[in-house]
What does this fold into?
Amino acid sequence: MANIPLNFSATVVDGLSTEASTLAYAEYADTTTLADVITDLNSWVADVDACIDGAIKANHIRITPAVLGTHKSPTGATFVASRVEQTAVLNFANGTTSRKYGQALPSVRSDLLTAGKIDLTDAAISALITLLTSGAFTNAAQQALTALVDAIIAFRKRRKQLSRTSFEI
It folds into this structure.
């Protein structure tokens, strides 16, 4: 049994519509149910609310499990050559609206790009598309993703972060 760190946050708004957040850290056994965590969040929010004049506008749970050791490590030639600005965007439809949801893949593998397009027949891309349309994944409005509509290659600038990490004297 492992413990998983998480945090609760609440956004508080005052009479002038100014917002601030408060945060609490916690740790739960990996056997704890989501319902139990939500119950604890609601108790914490109620206790915070009893201590403040402002109104709680929103609350969140952030779970931060450890990254599994089965993923690639930040070493090797492909890692050194990778660039997060090279982004694949997979656009999905939902059964409710005509708006697309774009799943960004920063630092998309260069070998997945063929003739300026994403190779949607690749096993890794196909597996991700199948997972995202399996019923559990949604857009921001909690509308289930139903099918891949299109895919594009985008270059999303990260200049400020890049200049901080690549600066030399």
